[in-house]
Design brief:
The protein is of the alpha+beta class and about 1250 residues long. The chain is about 35% helix and about 15% strand. The protein folds into 6 domains: about 10-200, no CATH class; about 300-430, no CATH class; about 450-530, no CATH class; about 535-685, no CATH class; about 705-885 and about 895-930 and about 970-1020 and about 1055-1145, no CATH class; about 1170-1255, Beta Barrel (OB fold (Dihydrolipoamide Acetyltransferase, E2P)). The chain is built from 37 helices and 34 strands. GO terms for molecular function: 3'-5'-RNA exonuclease activity; RNA binding. It holds the Pfam family SH3_CYT4. InterPro entries: NA-bd_OB-fold, RNase_II/R, RNR_Ribonuclease, SH3_CYT4, WH_CYT4. This is RNB domain-containing protein.
Length: about 1250
């Protein structure tokens, strides 16, 4: 147990460590006595560099270091020099006798209390050791306040004071400071001793390991001053630099300084593989606040590569994957912060303790949020990285007085350089008397939260042991965790208590996980099993023992090495590395590794035939149980990204990569980890890592055992389902009416069909029509607590990827029972329309369809005589790698059964679709289509897709051959131009009509359900205003009357974001007053909810014989007969929309992966000739904030209509004089000529190198 509780600081930085031994002066903590010695270890270069760079990561309060702070830093360095000197002078590295340090309780100690605490630097501690005992603390320390500990240094050892002025050991100061802060068996870190490195999160296996700054309540001097009414100018000492002794020219600081002089100004954007990480949703720590004087003018506001790529990918996913029934803006799944909200600011990379701030305002032009912190500093962060907020914490009246002292959006965008110059000479902070009321409120909140933590410290520090399951992944929310840990009802939990619990869970490291894309909205947590946490701890222990063994054997003679016996953990790692090296060498005989995060294609080509697949797999079992654990550890790092935000664990997998000796020219980052897993055969050489997303939680991803068990039980249910139709007595027989099911030939399930019949002749002689939209009706056969419903709720939607489909409901249920077919049940949404497309009447009824005709869009286009429309201007381009595509299997098609009467009905439906489109356009609806390419994959001739597969962890899996990949695209077409597909608007408009009928029907009856609409984003121009002032004049000048793409994208942003509610509200993007999705209950859980609610209402109306139509609101009526109450639905909605957005991103990522796989094999290995020459065109779609970045620019490769990243031009290459003058090398709407620089499979992106600017529009 003691070994498990050791701190892993030694893994990241080796240097000086405090250890318990059998020699030296006793170390007293409470009533325990342990000798304290100092042992010196060999420090790797990276460790020393990490320690050196630690101090700059510590953020100083109030923006400007005080003279005392500068002097303090010098004294801290001097003490570290002393310790290193003493170790250098001691042959055994121990401090014994009177020179030892001791921790002891009490006598003469200055007590630490809640109201006041002594704060001493290590040097002050040293100077006070002559006959007195004092206590030191910092805000980054943590300890239990009920146990008073002190540090005593015996002044009899003259070496401490004599070494004060010696400079020759100063280069080791950072390492010594770091190692003094460690706490582990064999090493003791006084929890109140200040260090130069931000504390890192401890493992969650110990009830003490989670304890951090919440065990103290020290009030910083700046906070105390903020409560006073007076302010003073900067003291003259502010500009005085304390004298420091000359540094060692051979020390680590000098070496790093020389390296910086040589390499520090290299052009980072041209680094091939450092283009960002889409998994890092937070994108790193906060932006500079400008008072810290960044060297680069843009460094305060530009996005990091991870931030930029993540923003662009998410935005484009919403465009390219949005359902045609619901065009969406790119800002879906966002809850906007408002002035006065209290937010938590996290420092994930430096692991500085989190702090609180108040949201001030939004800087839209830079995509940043302006905050004011508890320390009295203004900062700018991306709103998306805020994971915790308390809405309306203070009124705007308390925040508005700060505005005149904060930089405005105009200053940040245009006057940044001037502001930076002012920051060197002036204090840009808000006057303290102005900020005092706000700061005091935040300080008080912080104190109250720490009081809660102090009171419940033992429970909160042991949260994982109390909440986690032994073997299974669990889910929870912040509120549920708080009620369990604090034993307080949810309604009685004060906000500081919730915040304290959040800090405890956040500080627990690997034990808890949250989806950083949606946690602020949902509060949901994943509670990892104790078994999984133990696995990680075991591997960390093995790696530590292996590192120790490497250090020990490095100094042994050959004879000593022969007799040396490594510890068990070290043996596991040595054996694993030997096996991995042997496997990789064999693997490279067939496949070449690349820097793009993927192995190359196999040298063996296997054609697809009816008798064989194009892939042949052989396996060799060479791994034991310990090897399997190490493989899982590498998977967690490189595939599932389980260690993001945990630097201590992130430092370990690269050590294994480096130790193989086979990746010398690669960066030791997750993409290289995946490359290693591909080479040893754990994952396939063409593995789509999207399915391993820890938050996507696909049933086959092996993240959750209960989920796997549920999937197994559903498969076994196929022979014993016991379905019963709850609507049998209410079904309408649609008889011989033709029902047209229009979908692609490869559709997995058919869940909608259309029919039309004449209604009447209007008084003015115009015709009216009844349009019926028949939808599959699974909800009539099982209730909301059925296992099928439970799986549907977890999945949220069916997830379609080119290689596999992850069904929301098992295929046996949809294909055998619920998919529309002759004789199958349905729920029909009917609307009576006039010849203008206006809805005059609507109704909903259960039924049964009999005459079902399955057609493809091409069949319908041919039948209506529109097959050739739209194809001439944008011909379809087909690219294929891997061999010949297997011929399509012939399916039964109803095109030959179409009668002239049916063709006329299709034409009527098409005409009414056009009229409905006009109605929505008149109501302000927006129309766009990204015309995304289609991509398919084949392994066998039977069907598209790949065989089901799981990671192989028993040894080497050798994969010969590669799948066939085919992409079809028409290139980039203006998203806002009329659709070239004449049939798609027909289907889209009819589906939207059904959604409008469902919402209107429920609204009339005050039935709560899942409805969708749009909400305005604060600070954005109103859509109507944008239309009149910007869009309309531009469209009037266009010969075709089309909306230019760059203007349309700006117009779409003004509509705000899509939101969910239990009652209908206006959807501006669609131009509809009522909208609720109902057309896909076989693949969307939200649609199932509406079906359940509607069917319950239909049964109630049939039972009572009365209509439920009412003028009262949902809150005023009794709806206990419904399966979902409004309160339950509100809870479901919280998680449903983030889940839908996650699935949308996953589908987009999957398509991008296979398209980049195709281009990777074509461009890097010449498997097929690309139809364009050496250059391509790139259309810039990035916003202004992304364009300010020097890391590349989001764009679309126009020939293929796929996502790409364009590197910055070198030296202004390809730019005109005017372009150079405005300071922006890329703008929204630009068209650039580029060369393909590389195809990055791990990032799923094509990297372009610009040649010259071809076109620039006036934005």
């Amino acid at each position: 147990m003691a070994e498990q509780m050791r701190s892993l600081d030694e893994e990241a930085v080796a240097g000086v460590t405090l250890n318990r031994t059998q020699q030296g002066t006793p170390l007293t903590i409470g009533k325990q006595q342990t000798p304290l010695t100092i042992r010196k270890q060999q420090a790797p270069p990276v460790a020393a560099k990490l320690a050196e760079e630690s101090d700059p990561s510590i953020e100083r309060e109030w923006g400007t270091p005080s003279a005392a702070g500068v002097e303090e830093e010098a004294k801290q360095s001097q003490l570290e020099d002393i310790l290193d000197e003493l170790m250098s002078a001691s042959p055994d590295g121990q401090l014994g006798g009177s020179g030892a340090a001791a921790l002891e309780e009490g006598s003469g100690a200055q007590q630490l209390t809640h109201d006041g605490m002594a704060e001493l630097s290590p040097l002050e501690l040293l100077e006070s050791s002559h006959g007195a005992t004092r206590t030191a603390t910092t805000e980054r320390g943590s300890f239990r306040p009920e146990t008073v500990t002190t540090v005593t240094l015996d002044s009899a050892d003259s070496g401490f004071l004599d070494a004060l002025g010696k400079p020759e050991v100063r280069q080791q100061a950072a390492v010594a400071s770091t190692e003094m802060s460690r706490s582990s068996p064999g090493s003791v870190r006084p929890p109140h001793v200040s260090t130069g490195l931000a504390w890192q999160r401890a493992p969650a296996v110990s009830d003490r390991s989670q304890a951090r700054a919440y065990h103290i309540s020290h009030r910083s001097p700046q906070q105390q001053v903020a409560l006073e009414a007076e302010t003073s100018g900067p003291p003259p000492e502010l500009f005085q630099v304390p004298h420091r002794s000359p540094e060692n020219p051979n020390g680590i600081r000098a070496q790093l300084r020389r390296w910086q002089e040589v390499h520090g100004h290299e052009n980072r954007p041209n680094m091939d593989i450092e283009l960002g990480a889409d998994e890092d949703a937070d994108g790193g720590d906060l932006s500079n606040n400008l008072t810290r004087l960044p060297e680069d003018n843009d460094s305060a506001i530009r996005n990091t590569p991870a931030e930029q790529e993540d923003n662009e990918r998410e935005a484009m996913a919403h465009f390219t994957q949005a359902s045609s029934e619901e065009p969406s803006s790119a800002e879906r799944n966002t809850r906007f912060l408002q002035m006065g909200d209290l937010v938590e600011i996290e420092y994930l990379k430096s692991e500085t303790p989190n702090t609180v701030a108040v949201f001030v305002r939004r800087i839209d032009g830079l995509a940043l949020a302006q905050m004011y912190t508890k320390q009295g500093r203004w900062i700018h962060v991306r709103e998306k990285i805020v994971q915790y907020a308390i809405p309306g914490w203070v009124t705007e009246d308390l925040v508005k007085p700060l505005l005149q002292y904060l930089p405005s959006e105009e200053v940040l965008e245009t006057g940044l350089e001037e502001l930076m110059e002012q920051a060197y000479m002036k204090d840009l902070s808000v006057p303290r008397e102005i900020a005092a009321p706000l700061v005091s409120r935040m300080v008080q909140f912080d104190v109250e939260a720490k009081d809660v933590y102090r009171k419940h410290a033992r429970t909160l520090d042991n949260a994982h042991q109390l909440l986690a399951h032994d073997t299974d992944l669990r889910y929870g929310s912040l509120v549920s965790a708080a009620t369990t840990l604090l034993r307080t009802p949810a309604e009685k939990l004060p906000m500081p208590a919730l915040f304290a619990v959040r800090q405890a869970l956040s500080n627990a490291g690997f034990a808890f996980s949250m989806d950083r894309n949606s946690h602020r909205l949902t509060g949901y947590l994943q509670i990892r099993s104790k078994e999984q946490v133990r696995m990680v701890e075991n591997v960390r222990n093995w790696l530590r023992e292996w590192q120790d063994d490497l250090a020990m054997t490095a100094t042994l003679s050959a004879e000593q090495r022969r007799r040396h016996k490594p510890r068990r953990g070290a043996i596991h790692v040595y054996d694993f590395l030997d096996k991995v090296r042997a496997i990789i060498r064999k693997s490279r005989q067939d496949r070449e590794p690349t820097i793009w995060g993927n192995v190359g294609p196999s040298k063996v080509r296997i054609p697809i035939t009816p008798e064989q697949d194009c892939v042949r797999i052989t396996q060799e079992e060479t791994f034991n149980a310990q090897d399997t654990e190490l493989v899982r550890f590498m998977e967690a790092w490189s595939l599932s990204m389980l260690f993001n935000g945990l630097p201590r664990i992130l430092a370990l997998p690269p050590l294994l990569l480096q130790a193989t000796g086979l990746y010398e020219n690669y960066d030791f980052i997750p993409q290289t980890g995946m490359l290693m897993l591909q080479e040893i055969g754990t994952v396939l050489p063409y593995e789509n890592r999207v399915r391993f997303d820890q938050h996507l939680l696909l049933p086959s991803s092996q993240h959750s055992r209960p989920l796997q068990n549920l999937m197994t039980s559903l498969l076994e249910m196929a022979k014993n389902h016991d379905f019963k139709d709850s609507m049998e007595d209410l079904r309408h027989d649609w008889g011989s009416m033709p029902v047209f099911c229009i979908d692609e030939a490869g559709a997995h399930e058919i869940d909608d069909g259309l029919s039309v019949e004449p209604a009447a002749i209007a008084t003015d002689g115009t015709k009216e029509w009844w349009v019926h939209v028949h939808i599959a009706n699974p909800t009539a056969f099982f209730e909301r607590d059925h296992p099928l419903a439970k799986m549907a709720r977890h999945m949220g939607e069916s997830i379609y990827m080119p290689e596999r489909t992850y069904m929301m409901m098992p295929r046996w249920s949809t294909q055998r029972h619920f998919s529309l077919a002759p004789g199958r049940p349905c729920l029909t949404f009917s609307a009576r329309l006039d010849d203008k497309g206006r809805m005059l009447e609507h109704k909903i009824q259960n039924g049964r369809v009999k005459r079902v005709l399955r057609l493809t869009p091409e069949d319908v286009a041919v039948a209506m005589g529109k097959a050739e429309e739209g194809d001439g201007q944008h011909p379809e381009l087909t690219l294929t790698v891997g061999g010949e595509v297997p011929p399509e299997r012939k399916k039964r098609n109803a095109a030959a059964d179409l009668t002239p009467e049916m063709v006329e009905q299709l034409k009527v439906l098409n005409l009414l679709g056009d009229r409905r489109r006009d109605v929505r356009k008149a109501a302000g609806g927006m129309f766009f289509d990204s015309h995304s390419p289609s991509v398919n994959v084949w392994q066998s001739s039977k069907m598209s897709g790949l065989a089901w597969d799981n990671p192989y962890r028993k040894g080497w899996r050798h994969v010969e051959g590669d799948p066939v990949i085919q992409m079809k695209t028409r290139g980039l077409i203006n998203w806002f131009a009329p659709a070239p597909n004449p049939v798609k608007p027909l289907v889209t408009e009819m589906m939207l009509l059904a959604c409008e009928v469902s919402a209107a029907w429920c609204k009339e009856r005050a039935i709560p359900a899942v409805f969708r609409g749009s909400i305005q984003r604060p600070g954005r121009m109103d859509p109507d205003q944008f239309f009149k002032q910007v869009l309309s004049p531009i469209v009037a000048k266009d010969p075709k009357g089309e909306i230019p793409m760059h203007i349309g994208m700006r117009y779409l942003e003004t509509f705000g974001t899509t939101a969910l509610s239990v009652s209908p509200f206006r959807h501006k993007i669609l131009g509809m007053d009522n909208y609720g999705k109902v057309t896909s209950p076989l693949r969307r859980y939200g649609d199932m909810i509406l079906h359940w609610q509607i069917e319950a209402a239909l049964r109630e109306e049939a039972r009572t014989g009365r209509s439920l139509v009412t003028n009262r609101s949902i809150e005023e009526v009794d709806r206990r007969f419904l399966p979902f109450s409004a309160n339950v639905l509100n809870t479901i909605i919280v998680g449903l929309q983030p889940r839908e957005s996650m699935i949308m991103r996953a589908k987009s990522h999957a398509d991008s992966f296979w398209m980049t796989q195709l281009l990777f094999r074509a461009h890097e290995f010449g498997e097929t000739a690309l139809p364009f020459g050496k250059t391509v065109r790139a259309y810039v779609h990035g916003n202004s904030a992304a364009i300010r970045s020097d890391w590349g620019l989001g764009c679309i490769l126009m020939e293929l209509n796929i996502m790409a990243t364009m590197l910055p031009p070198t030296g202004g290459q390809g730019l005109s004089a005017g372009t150079k003058a405005d300071g922006l090398w890329g703008r929204l709407g630009d068209v650039w000529e580029c060369e393909i620089h590389g195809v990055h499979c791990f990032r799923r992106i094509v990297i372009l190198k610009p040649v010259r600017l071809l076109e620039r529009v006036d934005v």
